Amino acid sequence: MNITRKAAFHTLGCKLNYAETSAISRTLEGGGFTVVDFSQPADVYVINTCSVTANADKECKLIVRNALAVSPEAFVVIVGCYAQLKPEAISAIPGVDLVLGASEKFKLLNYLDDLSKKTSASVFSCEIETANFFVEAWSAGDRTRSFLKVQDGCDYTCTFCTIPLARGNSRSDTVENVVKNASAIALSGIKEVVLTGVNLGDFGKGLNGGKKKDLTFIDLIRELDEVEGIERFRISSIEPNLLTDEVIEFVSASKRFVPHFHIPLQSGSDRILKIMRRRYLTALYTDRIAHIRRVMPHACIGVDVIVGFPGETEADFLETYNYLNTLDISYLHVFTYSQRDNTPASVMPDQVPMNERKKRNKMLRILSVKKLRQFYEHQLGTTRNVLFEHQGPTGVMHGFTDNYVKVTTAYRPGFQNELVEVKLTGISADGLVNIDERAFLSISRRMQEKALG
Ligand code: SF4
Hints:
The chain has helices at 15-30, 56-70, 81-85, 87-91, 163-167, 175-187, 217-224, 245-253, 270-276, 282-295, 314-326, 354-379, 438-452, and strands spanning 6-11, 34-36, 44-49, 75-80, 98-100, 122-124, 137-138, 145-149, 151-152, 171-172, 192-196, 232-235, 260-266, 300-307, 331-336, 383-391, 396-401, 406-410, 419-427, 433-435. The protein is an alpha/beta fold. It folds into 4 domains: 6-126, 3-Layer(aba) Sandwich (Rossmann fold), CATH 3.40.50.12160; 132-258, Transcription Regulator spoIIAA (2-Layer Sandwich), CATH 3.30.750.210; 261-378, Transcription Regulator spoIIAA (2-Layer Sandwich), CATH 3.30.750.200; 383-452, CATH 2.40.50. The mean pLDDT is 93.
């Protein structure tokens, strides 16, 4: 009797990891597995790890323990960036049976013939240089938006970063294949695609068969803007030195690309940017923001910033704080610097005490709340299209405008995954944006008329 084996997945880290987990889970479904929620009993538990989070190992240990608490005899597999960087450390975690590195993770199905628990974990890792091929992936878990992987790896050498060590050199999918995947996502009914990668703006590297002029990011987004069925494309993150005027102007005039840019800054001090080995200084960053504001005053601009980088003095930090305070941006993602093995910054002098790092982190998070409030207030009174997500926990439903304003309203069946033009009216007690409910009346009437034929 053929028993269907169950597999469950847990993902840590970035959008790229979510896209890859989804792709790997589809290969297991293709191999006859049923994918269940991670809280359910399963024959195989797969944990897709991240190398950026400071407590990657502790987190991984806890998740393995939780899985085995539900199914003590389950086969446990660890993949992802942390598995590539620290295969031995991971294989020593009690209960782990298999560790797959960057070149093997997509071939997981080949390793699942024998699911019996092992006394010690098997490790199939690789030198990262050998993982120099591109594997397509997109997420299908969320019914409203999909993370579409278009680029992987990075050729930059920022002194705090382990990602090139975990994911290898920069490489891309072909434009044709990305368009094919976006069309497939459209057929599944998803309306928003979030373009995802490690260094997205570096798309195209090595794609033109080595011909002199490689394709670039602008070539990709031009093609994607013609994909029927996708209402919105969102650029997940792009390096400031790769965010060209051409890309900004294309997005402002495009049919489907939304006015939302997430641009890593990391520090507002040129001295620190140089030590980080970033490829720009604040002058270029200021210019990028100013150009976006010129052509898309309503655009949402998110900023990544690291606090407590080695050598960051109080004065450097205040320079960052004041720089961000004056910049016309919408929100911050604030990261506390944490030493990562095999990175130049981890052995730099003048490591900042952790309590000081935490204090600086808190100050920038408070600034981020203020910035987001100001951005939301500027949008009040305007009419924008909102893609409504599924019912929230308390009978409300949420959605995001094209320029990434999070709105809240009473739950209404039939509006999930629907794009609705609404007027933004006020800010709710929990800091989200209220809308003019009358928008639904006319649409409901139209939907009823349509239903009555
Ligand atoms: S650009 Fe820098 S921070 Fe970003 S992935 Fe590459 S090396 Fe890391």
